[in-house]
Amino acid sequence: QVQLVESGGGLVQPGGSLRLSCAASGLTLDYYAIGWFRQAPGKEREGVSCISSSDGSTYYADSVKGRFTISRDNAKNTVYLQMNSLKPEDTAVYYCNANRLGFDYWGQGLQVTVSS
Asked: What residues contact 16, with CB distance under 8 A and at least 6 apart?
């Protein structure tokens, strides 16, 4: 059974940092493109960042470029999203996604709240 389990969310003040983790079981993450998505209340889910399976190339949405960093630790079968200089508009439920050849898996999501 494939599972993606996110952790590391919570409440943080503006300007603070969080590191989200996406740990996989039932699949080998380094064979998959991994993406982080988020959905704020009343808004559609949007792509935040992704990392390829082939060469490790990365993509960031303009809204997070320079503040967020995606990385993967294949030995731990885990992908991370380091989020720095957080803003209130980063408040959302964050999801990780693993995709390969049409196989698509999602984590359960976790809340990130940026507020003073």
From this structure: 86, 114
Contact 30, 24 (CB under 8 A): no
Q: Kindly report, residue by residue over 26-59, the tens digit of the pLDDT.
A: 998 889 999 999 999 999 999 999 999 888 899 9
Q: SS3 for 83?
A: strand
Sign of the C-alpha dihedral computed for residues 6, 38, 45 and 58 taken in this order:
negative
Nearest-5° Cα angle at 45, 92 to 26: 90
3-22 core/surface letters (b: 16 or more CB in 10 A; e: else): ebebebbeebeeeeebebbb
The pair of structure tokens assigned to 39 is 């959905």
- Alpha-carbon distance of 96 to 88, in angstroms, equals 20
Residue 51 token pair? 């990392």
Whether the pLDDT of residue 102 is over 90: the answer is no
**E strands present in 14-85:** 18-25, 33-39, 46-51, 58-60, 68-73, 78-83
